[in-house]
Specification:
About 50% of the residues lie in helices and about 0% in strands. The chain has about 110 residues and is an all-alpha fold. The protein folds into 2 domains: about 5-50; about 65-100. The protein starts with 6 loop residues before the first helix and ends in an 18-residue tail after the last helix.
């Protein structure tokens, strides 16, 4: 999954493009981004006067913390429950649609 790029970097790239002292390719190389990214940001600035990324608006938000109590109760009642069984349980009884993509990275001391 791509890592979000900071708005600060976008603003610095656009400022460099506005200065017009270097080519888009050189600016992209200087800031460590792809040329296509610099071109897209420049186009957005010229056409929309927008320097920041649009907020994510696609797809269904999946928040496993909404079903935290349900998940904890299910695991407490059946400690050997598989991930597939837990997903099925949350999907049937929870407020969100569950899938294996909802599983967070393991953290130290997590239950």
């Amino acid at each position: 999954m791509p890592v979000p790029i900071s708005d600060d970097l976008r603003e610095r790239v656009i400022a460099a493009l506005e200065a017009g002292e270097q080519s888009q390719a050189k600016i992209a190389e200087t800031f460590g981004i792809n040329l296509s990214t610099a071109e897209k940001w420049w186009r957005c600035w010229r056409e929309e006067k927008r320097r920041v990324a649009l907020s994510h608006s696609g797809g269904q938000t999946r928040r496993p913390e909404v079903c935290d109590a349900l998940i904890r109760a299910a695991v407490k009642g059946q400690p050997d429950m598989t991930l597939a069984e837990l997903i099925e349980h949350v999907d049937a009884n929870g407020a969100v649609r569950a899938s294996s993509s909802m599983t967070p990275a393991p953290t130290a001391g997590a239950v």
